[in-house]
Amino acid sequence: MSADIIDGKAFAAGLRGRVGEAAGAFAKAAGRPAGLAVVLVGEDPASAVYVRSKGKATVAAGMASFEHRLPADTDQATLEALVDQLNADPAVDGILVQLPLPRHLDADAVLLRIDPDKDVDGFHPVNAGRLASGLPGFVPCTPLGCLMLLRDRLGDLSGKEAVVIGRSNIVGKPMAALLTADSATVTLAHSRTRDLPSHVGRADIVVAAVGRPNFVRGEWLKPGATVIDVGINRVEGGLVGDVDFASAVEVAGAITPVPGGVGPMTIAVLLRNTLVAAHRRAGVPLDDATL
Ligand code: NAP
Protein backbone atom coordinates (compact mmCIF):
# COMPACT_ATOMS: atom_id res chain seq x y z
CA MET A 1 0.00 0.00 0.00
CA SER A 2 1.24 3.47 -0.82
CA ALA A 3 1.49 6.20 1.85
CA ASP A 4 -0.51 9.43 1.77
CA ILE A 5 1.64 12.31 0.58
CA ILE A 6 1.74 15.23 3.02
CA ASP A 7 1.40 18.33 0.87
CA GLY A 8 3.62 20.89 2.62
CA LYS A 9 3.28 23.27 -0.29
CA ALA A 10 -0.51 23.47 0.09
CA PHE A 11 -0.30 23.69 3.89
CA ALA A 12 2.29 26.48 3.63
CA ALA A 13 0.09 28.38 1.15
CA GLY A 14 -2.81 28.19 3.63
CA LEU A 15 -0.57 29.40 6.47
CA ARG A 16 0.70 32.29 4.37
CA GLY A 17 -2.88 33.25 3.58
CA ARG A 18 -3.83 33.26 7.28
CA VAL A 19 -0.71 35.26 8.15
CA GLY A 20 -1.53 37.73 5.36
CA GLU A 21 -5.03 38.32 6.77
CA ALA A 22 -3.73 38.76 10.30
CA ALA A 23 -0.96 41.06 9.02
CA GLY A 24 -3.60 43.35 7.49
CA ALA A 25 -5.46 43.50 10.80
CA PHE A 26 -2.18 44.19 12.64
CA ALA A 27 -1.29 47.09 10.33
CA LYS A 28 -4.69 48.67 11.04
CA ALA A 29 -4.43 48.17 14.79
CA ALA A 30 -0.80 49.27 15.13
CA GLY A 31 -0.78 51.98 12.45
CA ARG A 32 2.21 50.36 10.74
CA PRO A 33 2.96 47.06 9.03
CA ALA A 34 4.92 44.27 10.71
CA GLY A 35 8.53 44.39 9.48
CA LEU A 36 11.20 41.77 8.79
CA ALA A 37 14.85 42.68 8.24
CA VAL A 38 17.05 40.18 6.43
CA VAL A 39 20.82 40.54 6.39
CA LEU A 40 22.92 38.88 3.70
CA VAL A 41 26.71 39.02 3.78
CA GLY A 42 28.51 38.06 0.58
CA GLU A 43 27.25 36.58 -2.65
CA ASP A 44 26.60 32.91 -1.94
CA PRO A 45 24.10 32.14 -4.74
CA ALA A 46 21.88 29.79 -2.69
CA SER A 47 21.69 32.34 0.16
CA ALA A 48 20.89 35.11 -2.32
CA VAL A 49 17.97 33.04 -3.66
CA TYR A 50 16.66 32.39 -0.11
CA VAL A 51 16.91 36.07 0.80
CA ARG A 52 15.09 37.12 -2.36
CA SER A 53 12.26 34.67 -1.80
CA LYS A 54 11.96 35.67 1.88
CA GLY A 55 11.70 39.33 0.83
CA LYS A 56 9.05 38.57 -1.79
CA ALA A 57 7.00 36.42 0.58
CA THR A 58 7.18 39.12 3.29
CA VAL A 59 5.79 41.78 0.95
CA ALA A 60 3.16 39.37 -0.42
CA ALA A 61 1.94 38.82 3.16
CA GLY A 62 1.44 42.57 3.62
CA MET A 63 4.52 43.11 5.78
CA ALA A 64 7.50 45.43 5.29
CA SER A 65 10.74 43.85 4.10
CA PHE A 66 14.10 45.46 4.84
CA GLU A 67 16.96 43.84 2.95
CA HIS A 68 20.56 44.59 3.90
CA ARG A 69 23.22 43.26 1.56
CA LEU A 70 26.77 43.62 2.76
CA PRO A 71 29.96 42.79 0.84
CA ALA A 72 31.73 39.49 1.52
CA ASP A 73 34.66 41.28 3.21
CA THR A 74 32.44 42.99 5.82
CA ASP A 75 34.10 42.89 9.24
CA GLN A 76 32.56 41.68 12.50
CA ALA A 77 32.18 45.18 13.98
CA THR A 78 30.28 46.49 10.94
CA LEU A 79 27.91 43.52 10.94
CA GLU A 80 27.30 43.80 14.68
CA ALA A 81 26.69 47.55 14.33
CA LEU A 82 23.98 46.79 11.75
CA VAL A 83 22.39 44.26 14.12
CA ASP A 84 22.43 46.92 16.88
CA GLN A 85 20.77 49.38 14.51
CA LEU A 86 18.04 46.86 13.61
CA ASN A 87 17.53 45.98 17.29
CA ALA A 88 16.82 49.67 17.95
CA ASP A 89 14.63 50.26 14.86
CA PRO A 90 10.93 50.40 15.87
CA ALA A 91 9.81 49.43 12.33
CA VAL A 92 11.70 46.14 12.56
CA ASP A 93 9.94 43.29 14.39
CA GLY A 94 12.06 40.41 13.16
CA ILE A 95 15.75 40.11 12.29
CA LEU A 96 17.21 37.28 10.30
CA VAL A 97 20.90 36.98 9.50
CA GLN A 98 21.22 34.57 6.59
CA LEU A 99 23.60 31.69 7.34
CA PRO A 100 26.20 30.56 6.56
CA LEU A 101 28.26 33.73 7.06
CA PRO A 102 31.65 34.06 5.35
CA ARG A 103 34.25 32.12 7.33
CA HIS A 104 36.08 35.11 8.81
CA LEU A 105 32.92 36.13 10.71
CA ASP A 106 31.81 34.73 14.09
CA ALA A 107 28.20 33.65 13.48
CA ASP A 108 27.55 32.74 17.14
CA ALA A 109 28.54 36.24 18.27
CA VAL A 110 26.25 37.80 15.66
CA LEU A 111 23.28 35.61 16.65
CA LEU A 112 23.88 36.43 20.34
CA ARG A 113 23.70 40.12 19.46
CA ILE A 114 20.15 39.90 18.05
CA ASP A 115 17.46 41.05 20.49
CA PRO A 116 15.82 37.72 21.51
CA ASP A 117 12.40 39.34 21.09
CA LYS A 118 13.23 40.04 17.41
CA ASP A 119 14.91 36.65 16.89
CA VAL A 120 12.26 35.22 14.55
CA ASP A 121 14.65 32.44 13.47
CA GLY A 122 14.68 31.23 17.08
CA PHE A 123 18.44 30.59 17.07
CA HIS A 124 19.33 32.80 20.05
CA PRO A 125 20.28 30.76 23.16
CA VAL A 126 17.65 32.69 25.13
CA ASN A 127 14.97 31.34 22.79
CA ALA A 128 16.46 27.82 22.92
CA GLY A 129 16.24 28.09 26.72
CA ARG A 130 12.67 29.37 26.58
CA LEU A 131 11.69 26.42 24.38
CA ALA A 132 13.40 23.96 26.73
CA SER A 133 11.64 25.58 29.71
CA GLY A 134 8.18 25.79 28.13
CA LEU A 135 8.21 29.60 28.08
CA PRO A 136 6.89 31.71 25.18
CA GLY A 137 9.64 32.69 22.76
CA PHE A 138 10.55 31.96 19.16
CA VAL A 139 10.99 28.45 17.80
CA PRO A 140 13.18 27.74 14.73
CA CYS A 141 11.01 27.82 11.63
CA THR A 142 11.77 24.40 10.13
CA PRO A 143 10.96 22.25 13.18
CA LEU A 144 7.89 24.38 14.00
CA GLY A 145 6.72 23.78 10.41
CA CYS A 146 7.26 20.03 10.88
CA LEU A 147 5.19 20.12 14.08
CA MET A 148 2.36 21.89 12.27
CA LEU A 149 2.33 19.20 9.56
CA LEU A 150 2.35 16.44 12.20
CA ARG A 151 -0.52 17.98 14.18
CA ASP A 152 -2.48 18.50 10.98
CA ARG A 153 -2.01 14.86 10.03
CA LEU A 154 -2.25 13.15 13.42
CA GLY A 155 -4.13 15.54 15.69
CA ASP A 156 -3.08 14.85 19.29
CA LEU A 157 0.54 13.63 19.45
CA SER A 158 0.29 12.62 23.08
CA GLY A 159 1.81 9.19 23.80
CA LYS A 160 3.12 8.70 20.25
CA GLU A 161 6.58 7.20 19.85
CA ALA A 162 8.72 9.72 17.95
CA VAL A 163 12.26 9.30 16.65
CA VAL A 164 14.11 12.42 15.55
CA ILE A 165 17.30 11.68 13.61
CA GLY A 166 19.80 14.55 13.89
CA ARG A 167 20.59 16.79 16.86
CA SER A 168 21.44 20.16 15.29
CA ASN A 169 20.45 23.34 17.10
CA ILE A 170 18.35 24.47 14.14
CA VAL A 171 16.35 21.29 13.47
CA GLY A 172 16.86 18.14 15.57
CA LYS A 173 17.07 19.54 19.11
CA PRO A 174 14.15 22.00 18.83
CA MET A 175 12.11 19.30 17.04
CA ALA A 176 12.67 16.93 19.97
CA ALA A 177 11.71 19.71 22.42
CA LEU A 178 8.50 20.50 20.51
CA LEU A 179 7.45 16.85 20.35
CA THR A 180 8.21 16.45 24.06
CA ALA A 181 6.05 19.50 24.80
CA ASP A 182 3.26 17.82 22.82
CA SER A 183 3.66 14.75 25.09
CA ALA A 184 5.18 12.40 22.51
CA THR A 185 7.78 9.94 23.78
CA VAL A 186 10.91 11.14 22.02
CA THR A 187 14.16 9.46 21.04
CA LEU A 188 16.80 11.85 19.69
CA ALA A 189 19.17 9.87 17.48
CA HIS A 190 22.52 10.99 16.03
CA SER A 191 25.68 9.66 14.47
CA ARG A 192 26.65 7.73 17.64
CA THR A 193 23.26 6.03 18.01
CA ARG A 194 23.58 2.25 18.02
CA ASP A 195 21.26 0.21 15.83
CA LEU A 196 19.28 3.14 14.42
CA PRO A 197 16.88 0.87 12.46
CA SER A 198 15.64 -0.70 15.72
CA HIS A 199 14.75 2.75 17.11
CA VAL A 200 13.09 3.82 13.87
CA GLY A 201 11.18 0.53 13.76
CA ARG A 202 9.10 1.36 16.84
CA ALA A 203 8.34 4.96 15.89
CA ASP A 204 4.88 6.26 15.04
CA ILE A 205 6.61 9.49 13.96
CA VAL A 206 10.00 9.70 12.23
CA VAL A 207 11.63 13.07 11.59
CA ALA A 208 14.81 12.79 9.52
CA ALA A 209 17.25 15.75 9.65
CA VAL A 210 20.55 14.11 8.82
CA GLY A 211 21.84 15.67 5.60
CA ARG A 212 22.50 12.31 3.90
CA PRO A 213 20.65 11.47 0.70
CA ASN A 214 18.14 8.58 0.96
CA PHE A 215 19.58 7.55 4.33
CA VAL A 216 16.44 6.20 6.07
CA ARG A 217 15.22 3.00 4.39
CA GLY A 218 11.60 1.94 4.04
CA GLU A 219 12.49 -1.45 5.60
CA TRP A 220 13.36 0.31 8.88
CA LEU A 221 9.90 1.85 9.29
CA LYS A 222 6.97 0.63 11.33
CA PRO A 223 4.08 0.12 8.91
CA GLY A 224 1.79 3.15 8.97
CA ALA A 225 4.38 5.52 10.48
CA THR A 226 4.24 9.24 9.69
CA VAL A 227 7.53 10.31 8.11
CA ILE A 228 8.75 13.91 7.95
CA ASP A 229 11.78 14.32 5.72
CA VAL A 230 13.67 17.53 6.48
CA GLY A 231 16.66 16.70 4.29
CA ILE A 232 17.53 18.70 1.22
CA ASN A 233 20.34 17.02 -0.69
CA ARG A 234 21.43 18.00 -4.15
CA VAL A 235 22.36 14.90 -6.14
CA GLU A 236 22.76 14.21 -9.81
CA GLY A 237 19.23 14.43 -11.17
CA GLY A 238 17.88 16.94 -8.64
CA LEU A 239 16.93 17.21 -4.97
CA VAL A 240 16.35 14.26 -2.65
CA GLY A 241 15.58 14.02 1.04
CA ASP A 242 17.17 12.06 3.89
CA VAL A 243 14.55 9.33 3.46
CA ASP A 244 14.60 6.86 0.61
CA PHE A 245 11.21 7.91 -0.72
CA ALA A 246 10.70 4.96 -3.09
CA SER A 247 10.97 2.32 -0.34
CA ALA A 248 9.45 4.46 2.45
CA VAL A 249 6.29 5.28 0.53
CA GLU A 250 5.44 1.55 0.45
CA VAL A 251 5.56 1.21 4.26
CA ALA A 252 4.71 4.60 5.79
CA GLY A 253 1.15 5.79 6.43
CA ALA A 254 2.07 9.32 5.37
CA ILE A 255 5.24 10.97 4.14
CA THR A 256 6.48 14.40 3.09
CA PRO A 257 7.99 14.55 -0.40
CA VAL A 258 11.22 16.38 -1.29
CA PRO A 259 10.74 18.94 -2.73
CA GLY A 260 7.23 20.12 -1.74
CA GLY A 261 7.12 18.84 1.84
CA VAL A 262 8.96 20.57 4.68
CA GLY A 263 10.81 23.08 2.50
CA PRO A 264 7.88 25.43 1.74
CA MET A 265 6.91 25.47 5.43
CA THR A 266 10.09 27.23 6.53
CA ILE A 267 9.36 30.64 4.96
CA ALA A 268 5.66 30.45 5.88
CA VAL A 269 6.62 29.91 9.54
CA LEU A 270 9.16 32.73 9.34
CA LEU A 271 6.32 35.07 8.33
CA ARG A 272 4.19 33.69 11.16
CA ASN A 273 6.99 34.26 13.69
CA THR A 274 7.49 37.82 12.43
CA LEU A 275 3.80 38.57 12.84
CA VAL A 276 3.83 37.12 16.36
CA ALA A 277 6.88 39.28 17.18
CA ALA A 278 5.08 42.37 15.86
CA HIS A 279 2.01 41.72 18.02
CA ARG A 280 4.09 41.13 21.14
CA ARG A 281 6.20 44.25 20.58
CA ALA A 282 3.19 46.47 19.85
CA GLY A 283 1.09 45.00 22.66
CA VAL A 284 -1.63 43.99 20.17
CA PRO A 285 -3.28 40.70 21.21
CA LEU A 286 -3.09 37.75 18.81
CA ASP A 287 -4.51 34.28 19.18
CA ASP A 288 -1.60 32.51 17.49
CA ALA A 289 -3.52 29.23 17.58
CA THR A 290 -5.54 30.67 14.68
CA LEU A 291 -2.45 30.87 12.45
P1 NAP B 1 23.56 19.10 10.59
O1 NAP B 1 23.78 20.28 11.47
O2 NAP B 1 24.63 18.66 9.67
O3 NAP B 1 23.17 17.87 11.55
C1 NAP B 1 23.04 16.59 11.05
C2 NAP B 1 22.71 15.63 12.18
O4 NAP B 1 22.62 14.32 11.62
C3 NAP B 1 23.80 15.60 13.27
O5 NAP B 1 23.19 15.66 14.54
C4 NAP B 1 24.47 14.25 13.04
O6 NAP B 1 24.90 13.60 14.24
C5 NAP B 1 23.34 13.43 12.44
N1 NAP B 1 23.88 12.32 11.66
C6 NAP B 1 24.86 12.36 10.72
N2 NAP B 1 25.12 11.12 10.26
C7 NAP B 1 24.30 10.30 10.94
C8 NAP B 1 24.10 8.90 10.92
N3 NAP B 1 24.82 8.09 10.13
N4 NAP B 1 23.18 8.36 11.76
C9 NAP B 1 22.45 9.15 12.56
N5 NAP B 1 22.59 10.49 12.63
C10 NAP B 1 23.50 11.05 11.82
O7 NAP B 1 22.26 19.26 9.70
P2 NAP B 1 20.95 20.18 9.87
O8 NAP B 1 21.31 21.61 9.72
O9 NAP B 1 20.15 19.75 11.05
O10 NAP B 1 20.16 19.75 8.54
C11 NAP B 1 19.77 18.42 8.29
C12 NAP B 1 19.17 18.32 6.91
O11 NAP B 1 18.02 19.15 6.85
C13 NAP B 1 20.07 18.81 5.77
O12 NAP B 1 19.80 18.02 4.62
C14 NAP B 1 19.60 20.24 5.53
O13 NAP B 1 19.83 20.66 4.20
C15 NAP B 1 18.13 20.09 5.79
N6 NAP B 1 17.46 21.33 6.21
C16 NAP B 1 16.31 21.66 5.57
C17 NAP B 1 15.60 22.78 5.94
C18 NAP B 1 14.31 23.10 5.26
O14 NAP B 1 13.90 24.23 5.19
N7 NAP B 1 13.61 22.11 4.75
C19 NAP B 1 16.09 23.61 6.96
C20 NAP B 1 17.26 23.24 7.63
C21 NAP B 1 17.94 22.08 7.25
P3 NAP B 1 26.10 14.18 15.17
O15 NAP B 1 25.48 15.31 15.93
O16 NAP B 1 26.45 13.03 16.03
O17 NAP B 1 27.18 14.61 14.25
TrEMBL record:
Report the EC number(s), separated by commas if there are several. Answer: 1.5.1.5, 3.5.4.9
Among the record's GO biological process terms, what is one? methionine biosynthetic process
Q: Which PROSITE patterns match?
A: THF_DHG_CYH_2
Pathway assignment: One-carbon metabolism; tetrahydrofolate interconversion
Source taxon at top rank: Bacteria
The record's GO molecular-function terms, alphabetically, read: methenyltetrahydrofolate cyclohydrolase activity; methylenetetrahydrofolate dehydrogenase (NADP+) activity
The Tetrahydrofolate dehydrogenase/cyclohydrolase catalytic domain extends over: 6-121
The record's Gene Ontology cellular component field reads: cytosol
Question: What residues bind NADP(+), as annotated?
Answer: 166-168, 232
Does the record bear NADP in its keywords? yes
Gene3D superfamilies for this protein: Leucine Dehydrogenase, chain A, domain 1, NAD(P)-binding Rossmann-like Domain
Which UniProt keywords are given for this protein, alphabetically ordered? Amino-acid biosynthesis, Histidine biosynthesis, Hydrolase, Methionine biosynthesis, Multifunctional enzyme, NADP, One-carbon metabolism, Oxidoreductase, Purine biosynthesis
The protein's matches in InterPro entries, at most eight in alphabetical order, are given as: Aminoacid_DH-like_N_sf, NAD(P)-bd_dom_sf, THF_DH/CycHdrlase, THF_DH/CycHdrlase_cat_dom, THF_DH/CycHdrlase_CS, THF_DH/CycHdrlase_NAD-bd_dom
Q: What's this protein's function?
A: Catalyzes the oxidation of 5,10-methylenetetrahydrofolate to 5,10-methenyltetrahydrofolate and then the hydrolysis of 5,10-methenyltetrahydrofolate to 10-formyltetrahydrofolate.
Q: What family is this protein classified in?
A: Belongs to the tetrahydrofolate dehydrogenase/cyclohydrolase family.
In Swiss-Prot or TrEMBL terms, this protein is called Bifunctional protein FolD
